[in-house]
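We store chain and fold; thus.
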Amino acid sequence: MPKMKTKKAAAKRFSFTGTGKVKYKKQNLRHILTKKSSKRKRGLRQAGILSEDNVPVIRKQLLPYG
């Protein structure tokens, strides 16, 4: 059976932590930043952790060798 291909779009957006959780960069920090509060922008800098419901989809279909 041939190797499965990694979905490159997903590889650029998601990565795995050491414990197997999926982390991603949060949205809404690219433009129109003047109307957003400093507190909100500060919170958006930290990586988000994907909910456990969506982890199998990312791990099996999009990043099979991640």
Summary: The chain has a mean pLDDT of 95. Residues 13 and 25 are 7 Å apart (CA to CA). The chain is about 35% helix and 10% strand. Helices lie at 8-13, 38-45, 55-62.
